[in-house]
Amino acid sequence: MTTLTVYKEEYCISTDKAKLDVDSIHEFLSTKAYWCLNIPKNKVRTSIEHSLCFGVYLHERQIGFARIISDFSTIAYLGDVYILENYRGNGLSKWLMEVIMNYPDLQELRRWILLTGDAHELYRKFGWTDLADPSVWMELHHKNIYSQ
Prior knowledge:
By secondary structure, this protein is an alpha+beta fold. It has one domain (5-147): Gcn5-related N-acetyltransferase (GNAT) (Aminopeptidase). The protein has helices at residues 22-31, 41-49, 92-101, 120-124, and strands at residues 5-8, 11-14, 52-58, 61-70, 75-83, 111-114. Strands 1-2-3-4-5-6 form a six-stranded mixed beta sheet, sandwiched between helices. A hairpin with a 2-residue loop joins β3 (52-58) and β4 (61-70). It is globular, with a radius of gyration of 15 Å. 20% of the residues are buried.
């Protein structure tokens, strides 16, 4: 898998897992991310180990994150996308999406999927649409699994 590090002014996006601040990622996901509140740190760590991860940094401080679950041939799931609140409004989420969508090992996939409750307009800028035929999709969703 291609390790990628790109810079824009004082910001950096990298797929180098050694740079990831797992404590920071866990803090955000477990306390601020509506999709996985209370997620245990070991679950975050395991999800990182088994995903292609994109860290967003200001100098050496991690301020954002996204991860991809993929077979790198036909499908990719985009999840856990965030920029810390104090750094929003600087175009970082758009830049993160540009980097992800142009990542060399994710080209020519048949399908990309994601779930979002509030960032539809961001993803639409990159060609994402609502499901063309929701009747063919199914899910098994344990919504409050980390709160039990």
